[in-house]
Amino acid sequence: MLSLGQPAGFFDAIIVQLVTVLKDGREVRMSKRAGEFITLRELVDEVGVDAARYFFLMRRGDSPFAFDVDLATKQTDENPVFYVQMAHARCRHLPRGGIAPASVTAEGTDVAGCRSRWRPTL
Fold first, then answer.
1. Contacts by residues 76-84 (CB-CB < 8 Å, ≥ 24 positions apart)
2. I want to staple 72 with a disulfide (CB 3.0 to 4.6 A). Which of 3, 51, 60, 84 is the partner?
């Protein structure tokens, strides 16, 4: 990269294991010779950005990985991404006027700068 005028740490290539894609309970067959493969863009378009990020980050890059498309698109308790999204939605709802948990106290805390609709009892 130095010969291209870029600093030494500009580009860092991370080598990962091949990913096996499962769909309808079976492995999706791919062939480099025949040019049949699934790109990351196609996978993200099918399952969504959040699911793709979560499933790829939950495993180390140097371990074999089977990406189950059906599991990533389910909106049931089997899908770990569904839990994370629900938890995020609940956390975001609290400051917007949701019911404050009874265990939340603000003793000794300056809440003057808070912009939420509910205020903890002081």
1. 79/51, 80/54, 81/50, 81/51, 81/54, 81/55, 84/50, 84/54
2. 51
